[in-house]
Design brief:
- The protein is an alpha+beta fold and 140 residues long.
- The protein contains 3 helices and 4 strands.
- A hairpin with a 2-residue loop joins β1 and β2.
């Protein structure tokens, strides 16, 4: 049935909870906030048509530190800017076999995603909950 998510469908595309806001907003006919960057994407086409993920890359953090990047079937773990492990998630979902040796081209592609991501973060940075010279609220 058109516009419906098929029952018992298996989907191996990269989707994230961040995608729920733009997906539900579109389904409800609402607009996502335009005053900030929304990381999620509308994933309804993926769920209905078994399309491809709208995410070219996905980034994993431990606290405020970038820990890994995933693109397609590849996931690269990093320590700072140093690659430390590479996994083919298509054949090794448990990340048990590090295939970093001999995959320099893939590593370079994943590092390029990280570089673009870090540039985007710097370009769109806004401090959170910081007020210069704060004062307590008072009644007038």
């Amino acid at each position: 049935m058109a516009g419906k998510i098929p029952v018992a469908q298996v989907n191996n595309e990269l989707l994230t909870a961040m995608d729920l806001l733009p997906t539900f907003a579109k389904l409800a006919g609402a607009a996502v906030p335009a005053d900030r960057i929304i990381d999620g994407k509308d994933i309804m086409p993926v769920l209905i048509d078994k399309g491809k993920s709208p995410h070219q890359a996905f980034f994993y953090h431990k606290g405020n530190t970038l820990a890994a990047v995933r693109s397609g079937k590849w996931k690269l773990h990093v320590d700072g800017d140093k690659p430390v492990a590479l996994y083919n998630l298509e054949s090794d979902i448990s990340e048990s076999t590090n295939v970093i040796q001999g995959n320099g081209k893939i590593i370079d592609q994943l590092l390029a995603h990280i570089e673009t991501f870090q540039e985007d973060i710097l370009k769109n940075y806004r401090s959170a909950a910081y007020v210069e010279n704060p004062r307590p609220l008072t009644k007038n």
